[in-house]
Design goal:
This protein is an alpha+beta fold. It has one domain: Sortase (Sortase, Chain: A, Beta Barrel). It is built from 4 helices and 9 strands. The protein has an 8-stranded mixed β-barrel with strand order 1-2-3-4-8-9-6-5. β1 and β2 form a beta hairpin. The model has no long low-confidence stretch (mean pLDDT 89). Keywords: Hydrolase, Membrane, Transmembrane, Transmembrane helix.
Length: 244
């Protein structure tokens, strides 16, 4: 065996070892350090939100980066609570779930859509894959508490049975076999599929109108540690309780 062959193998080995160390450092940064930074920013956002809700002079229209709502998902535990901020740029999503600014607000006809990280940076949407049909998602604003329920995971005749325990009346008819029968509670799509945040999910270009159901959409990267696809959760409003 020549010294040239040995040296080449040694160089390749050293390169692979260096790459492995760099990958470990990056994983540590994503999974630990960014979580600490996001935790600090989330705490500050919750403090800002508390101040805003107790100050009657505060502007009700949030600016980019402002916290304006609280997101709770009981299936993830009693301590699952995140301040929601306006916008979906990098700075906003480092703080917590961010509102797609061109979508509707909580409780309004149409689609209130949020984005959130799945790994690192607080990972508020890490467990979205655990949600089931009828699971509760609660959004609290200064004005009201809005309850949404996750839609069925599949289409077909079983949708009515999946939702009868948490939805009734015309809304159930529309979800079971009407104009929302094609909207799934969870599905995977490509990052360019902006139709998922349309006023009626899946109907890109449709305008907001009073006859639309109030919806909630959550979006996050899929699979974990990848930005190749998007996991989408759709839920329908089942209750709204004004605070005043």
């Amino acid at each position: 065996m020549s010294s040239r062959t040995v040296n080449t193998r040694e160089v390749i080995g050293e390169v692979l070892l260096t790459l492995g160390v760099l990958l470990l450092l990056f994983a540590f940064y994503e999974a630990y350090w960014t979580n600490l930074d996001a935790g600090r920013k989330q705490s500050q956002a919750q403090e800002q939100l508390n101040d805003a809700w107790t100050n009657p002079r505060t502007n009700h229209t949030p600016s980019l980066g402002d916290a304006f709502a609280v997101l709770r998902i009981p299936a993830f535990g009693a301590d699952y609570q995140y301040a929601v901020v306006e916008g979906t740029d990098d700075a906003a999503l480092l703080t917590g779930p961010g509102h797609y600014s061109d979508t509707q607000m909580p409780g309004a006809p149409g689609n209130f859509a949020l984005a959130g990280h799945r790994v690192g940076k607080g990972a508020p949407f890490n467990d979205l894959g655990r949600l089931k049909a009828c699971d509760e998602i609660v959004v609290e604003t200064r004005e009201a508490t809005v309850t949404y329920r996750v839609l069925p995971m599949e289409g077909g005749a079983g949708r009515r049975g999946d939702m009868e325990g948490c939805l009734s009346g015309p809304a159930l008819d529309r979800v079971a076999g009407g104009d929302y029968a094609g909207v799934l509670g969870r599905h995977i799509t490509v990052p360019s599929d902006v139709s998922v945040i349309a006023p009626r999910p899946g109907q890109q270009g449709e305008k907001v109108s009073p006859d639309l159901l109030p919806m909630l959409t959550l979006t996050t990267c899929h699979p974990q540690f990848s930005n190749a696809e998007r996991m989408i959760i759709h839920a329908v409003q089942t209750d709204i309780t004004p605070k005043r």
